[in-house]
Specification:
heterodimer, A: 345 residues, alpha/beta, 6-stranded mixed β-sheet, 4-stranded antiparallel β-sheet, 34% helix, globular, B: 361 residues, 8-stranded mixed β-sheet
């Protein structure tokens, strides 16, 4: 699954926020690596720590109010050890980000083109003329029609999809090595979502970069990611190549997620939800954080935290069940789904 | 009087049973005015522009479309939460479109609504017991309110002992259960669900969908189910109506619509949905990616509202820039193209059409 060099490596990251009610363990012992040329999908429910992980990498959380330990190594340098000035030289240049809400990310008073020019001039001392030409080129590259005219438009004159395209253009101005996309299509309609996902894929290939795609939508992940990490309560539950993860998932939480999606079912067939609701990050259950909702929990689950590790097969996961049990239980679930599907059609 | 039908029976029954609700030519314009004292109407947002449909007792009619296509406005029109510009609504054979507020109030018992945002639709200063019990108070029903509220809470999967808690003490999924209990309080015939699961995580979404299905069979409910999520709509609906720019462009049986979409917009909408792991990989290549964005409902295109983006029109004209004259000039009629399968298109999609090719050309 890994093709190119390692771009970003996160090692045992903990991000804790002390609050009057207790310590919020937003990220609690997370490790993963992203390679050049791959789309690394991070999927999880709200509050699972997907966004905090990446905001920490970009130095966008308030370090005064958070307690951060671990390492985030980007191209050989630990981002957590850089000071503000050094981080500024990396952020927006080698490490770029696009956010969920393209309506909130562009300043409404400035022309879209000028905002992209500003992003270029931040890191490059080139003339404004050159920066303008480069902006027009990029706007064309991300599929904005008549880029020279649209350069002078204000954000409100752009539609949602075009704003997200402009944000992608802005992220690309310095040929970054890694693009972090935090729910880039969640605010968009499906037909526009399809356009933006295709654009991100094209950009990844044209610029030969790595992409981290954060989403709550397993359908989006299945379409575009090569490697997938499933997060729950601030921890990685399972990391695997897309095909492996979707055809042969090993963690009961992943099973539950896959079975909750109503994409292949029709009226009359029942969904299999995960019982209960995600835990509060202040009182994360002891042991495996998923054990209160897990139908297969057994004796060590509420005491020992299962390590996220590769038990053979290049597919690290964090679950106490034995390999044989996992295979058997997943096979049972597959069989049940097949029967339901056959009965429905 | 309400009977329930299985999906197979509905089709036969549809022709013999009176619809529970019938909407004819619904139009809603929101005027855009200029001037402070003398407000002149300079334009109008054509939010809903001539919508007809029927909802039969016991069925779930799904309403899908992208943002701004008029789904929620339609829901608000049929529940009489906002006044109509023109058109008529018949509920159980009575024309309710001309009724005033006083006349409509008794009918509100029969149609209730579940809203999208469980954080905004519950009053944060009232206890759960008060929120769910309010419908009984408004309609001055007899009986022990507290007992009935606790029965309801139990039925929707909330702990009845939490009667005196406030909404902020509940999670998103539990709040949506409170919303469901409130809608159910007066045993309505029709429940309009406006994006009831869009704000919830997938694992919780599945719980609420199962609950809605159980309640439907238990209380003989009829749903109008609005969502932008095509997977959810397919799961819960018997029939589905697809809206685009204030009009219904296609209406058909759920299975038929997904297997055999006639309107090019429906076909591209369905192909744009990420297919999930069962079809991973194949999905990207089979996708019909539409060009451009949805036009503004202030100034919708002439003729068929979809013609500026339609891949099929380009196949028919044989050119990437041209569309046929009738697409450009005349609104296509809402014709029956198969058994109970209606679509508003001059050139409905058929087998062998390479819409994907046309869209990518």
């Amino acid at each position: 699954m890994a093709q190119g060099e390692v771009l970003l490596e996160v090692k045992d990251l903990h991000v804790h926020f002390p609050t009057p009610d207790g310590i919020v363990k937003a990220v609690d012992g997370l490790s993963f690596a992203v390679h050049r040329g791959e789309t690394f999908g991070i999927v999880g429910e709200s509050g699972s720590g997907k966004s905090v992980t990446n905001l920490t990498a970009l130095g966008l959380i308030n370090m005064k109010s958070a307690h951060v330990t671990g390492e985030i190594i980007f191209l050989g340098r630990d981002l957590l050890k850089l000071d503000k000035e050094e981080l500024r030289k990396v952020r927006g240049k080698d490490l770029a980000m696009i956010f969920q809400d393209p309506f909130a990310c562009l300043h409404p008073f400035y022309r879209v083109g000028d905002q992209i020019v500003e992003a270029i001039l931040c890191h490059d001392s080139v003339s404004k003329k050159i920066a303008t030409d480069r902006t027009v080129e990029l706007l064309a590259a991300v599929g904005i029609p008549r880029p020279r005219e649209r350069f002078r438009d204000y954000p409100h004159q752009y539609s949602g999809g075009m704003r997200q395209r402009a944000m992608i253009a802005m992220a690309l101005v310095h040929n970054p090595d890694l693009l972090i996309a935090d729910e880039p299509t969640t605010a968009l309609d499906v037909t526009v979502q399809a356009q933006i996902l295709e654009l991100i894929e094209k950009v990844k290939q044209d610029f030969n970069i790595g992409v981290i795609l954060i989403t709550h939508d397993l359908g989006v992940i299945a379409d575009v990611a090569q490697t997938v990490m499933v997060m729950y309560a601030g921890r990685g539950m399972e990391i695997g190549g897309r095909d492996l993860l979707f055809t042969n998932p090993l963690h009961p939480y992943t099973w539950g997620l896959l079975e909750s999606i109503p994409n292949v079912t029709q009226k009359g067939t029942r969904l299999v939800p995960i019982e209960g609701s995600p835990p509060s990050l202040i009182n994360v259950p002891p042991g495996c954080p998923f054990h209160p909702r897990c139908p297969h929990r057994f004796e060590p689950c509420d005491k020992e935290i299962p390590e996220l590790m590769d038990r053979g097969g290049g597919h690290p996961e964090a679950c106490h069940l034995t390999d044989g049990d996992k295979k058997r239980l997943w096979a049972q679930r597959e069989e049940r789904r097949r029967v339901v599907k056959a009965a429905a059609s | 009087m309400t009977e329930t039908f299985t999906a197979a029976q509905t089709e036969a029954a549809r022709h013999s049973v009176e619809p529970l609700l019938r909407a004819e030519g619904l139009v809603k314009n929101f005027p855009i005015t200029k001037g402070i004292i003398f407000q002149r109407e300079v334009a109008a947002v054509h939010a809903v522009d001539g919508v007809d449909f029927e909802i039969y007792p016991g069925e779930t009619l799904g309403l899908v479309g992208e943002s701004g296509c008029g789904k929620s406005t339609t829901a608000r029109l049929i529940t009489k939460l906002i006044p109509l510009t023109s058109g008529s609504i018949w509920f159980e054979g009575k024309d309710i479109s001309k009724m005033n507020n006083r006349q409509i109030r008794p009918l509100r018992r029969e149609m209730q609504m579940i809203f999208q945002d469980p954080y905004a639709s519950l009053n944060p200063r009232k206890t759960v017991g008060t929120i769910i019990g309010t419908p009984y108070k408004i309609h001055k029903t007899e009986g022990d309110t507290k007992k009935r509220v606790q029965d309801l809470m139990d039925r929707v999967g909330l702990n009845p002992e939490h009667y005196n808690r406030y909404p902020h003490e509940f999670s998103g999924g539990q709040r949506q259960r409170i919303g469901v209990a409130r809608a159910l309080a007066l045993r309505p015939k029709l429940i309009v669900c406006d994006e009831p699961v869009s704000a919830l995580d997938v694992s919780i979404q599945a719980q609420i969908l199962n609950l809605l299905e159980d309640l439907q069979s238990e209380f003989n409910l009829t749903y109008l189910f609005i969502s932008h999520d095509l997977g959810v709509v397919r799961h819960i609906s018997d029939r589905i109506a697809v809206m685009y720019l204030g009009r219904i462009v296609e209406l058909a049986d759920a299975v038929d619509l997904y297997d055999n979409p006639k309107h090019p917009y429906t076909a591209s909408l369905l192909s744009a949905v990420p297919k999930g792991y069962e079809a991973a990989g194949a999905a990207l290549t089979n996708r019909i990616t539409l060009k451009g964005d949805v036009p503004s409902p202030i100034d919708p295109p002439s003729g068929c509202p979809f013609h500026p983006r339609c891949p099929k029109a380009r196949i028919v004209s044989g050119s990437d820039t041209e569309v046929p004259e009738n697409c450009k000039n005349e609104m296509p009629p809402f014709g029956e193209l198969g058994t109970d399968h209606y679509a508003a298109c001059w050139y409905p999609a058929g087998e062998g059409d390479d819409l994907q090719e046309a869209a990518h050309a």
